Amino acid sequence: MHSFAWTLPSVDLTSPSETNLNKCAKALQDLFKQVIEAAGRTRHQNGYSVPWWSEKCKAAYKAYREATDGSPAQEEARKTLRDIIRRSKRSHWDEIIAEASATRNIWSVAKWRKAIDRFQPPPLIDGDKSILDPTERATFLRDKLLKRKTTEEDIPDLWEEDLPVNKNIYWDQTVSEPEAKKATTGSGNTAPGADGILVALL
Asked: In which domain of life is the source organism classified (predicted)?
């Protein structure tokens, strides 16, 4: 206990007792917790590094994370990050293709290139512009195929015809004897009603 006295100024070590021992243990626990929080750092093993991730990608990702959620600045930072990542990937693979000399490296690059072409949809052409982003593709298709421009393109409403006004609906108010019998005595419940009358009596 005296070895740690300099770290425990609030504990009286001149008279050892059970109370002082508990206080010392609690003070040491708090001390270790403060040291771990100050100097320790949790390691995350879930992520993995990619060869094309550069300092520009880090800076763009930091700017995106620091932007306010839902703000125009965040949307602009997202587009910037996406463009930088796309250029970084392209530069990385262009360098690999340029350095590929052995037969094994050439076949590896060819396999990667074939996989990309297999799952990448062709771009949409809008004049001189090629659209590759999924969100921009969806917006372009919506505007071209689904968006209504004039009222002449509306689907005709079948209920806009001239319908008769205040037309009475035919309603037969007469009740036949079989209908009255079925309504009064056709119930499957044989228990008497609130007035004590059985269905059979009716």
From this structure: Eukaryota
Parse the chain into domains and list their residue ranges.
Answer: 2-39
The two tokens of residue 85 are: 């990542």
> What's CA 159's distance to the chain center, in Å?
41
Residue pair 121/115 in contact (Cβ under 8 Å)? The answer is no
Q: What gap in Å lies between CA 82 and CA 143, rounded to an integer?
A: 24
Helix (H) or strand (E) run with residue 126 in it:
strand 124-126
Tokens of 20: 């002082």
* Sequence-separated (6 or more) residues with CB below 8 Å from residue 74: 64, 67, 68
Residue 124 one-letter amino acid: L
Residue type, 28: L
Tens-place pLDDT, residues 105-160: 666 666 665 555 556 778 888 888 888 888 888 888 888 887 766 667 667 776 66
